[in-house]
Design a protein that fits this description.
57% of the residues lie in helices and 0% in strands. It contains 8 helices and no strands. The N and C termini lie far apart (60 Å).
Length: 169
């Protein structure tokens, strides 16, 4: 695993992604694998680790499987192993989008933090908060409602449009 981290992940992933991958692969879940060659790791070994992670953090189990898939795909590509033990494995849990609303205290804290950070990120984050938009949805728009990238009119999804009209009525 260290070979993968040093030769591939460190050079080919964003630093934050590399740090997370390193944290996961060098974590307690994989202590039993540290002295073993990759070729000795079986599908059963992978399933045992993933099942243990599911018990404490379902979404983390999906993320860990993705990191293992990248590791073993790299190992197959580099001819370190002939078959990946994660080939054909599906994510162990179904992920659901979460809705979360900030409390009034969190909104006040966030607003003050935006003011303290100043231009350009503070006002942009405040705009995102006020409009309930995501960063890329707002940052690529001109004041005229046209995308700077595609030069297409800004579109509001039907459900959002109906919701806005209901509040105006």
């Amino acid at each position: 695993m260290q070979d993968y981290l040093d030769r591939y992940a460190k050079r080919n992933t964003a630093s934050i992604t590399y740090a997370e991958t390193k944290r996961v692969l060098e974590g307690d879940d994989f202590k039993a694998w540290t002295k073993r060659p990759l070729a000795s790791i079986s599908r059963r070994d992978v399933n045992d680790v993933i099942d243990a992670i599911v018990l404490r953090a379902e979404v983390q189990a999906n993320r860990t499987l993705a990191k293992l898939r990248a590791l073993f795909n790299w190992a197959v590509e580099k001819d370190r192993i002939s078959v990946s033990p994660v080939e054909g494995l599906k994510p162990p849990t179904k992920e659901q989008a979460r809705d979360r609303a900030l409390s009034d205290d969190e909104i006040r804290w966030f607003w003050k933090a935006c003011e303290a950070s100043g231009w350009p990120f503070g006002p942009l984050a405040q705009l995102l908060l006020l409009t309930e938009q995501r960063r890329d949805g707002v940052a690529t728009r001109t004041p005229y409602g046209t995308s700077l990238i595609r030069r297409t009119p800004m579109r509001i999804p039907g459900a959002a449009s109906r919701e806005a009209h209901r509040h105006l009525a």
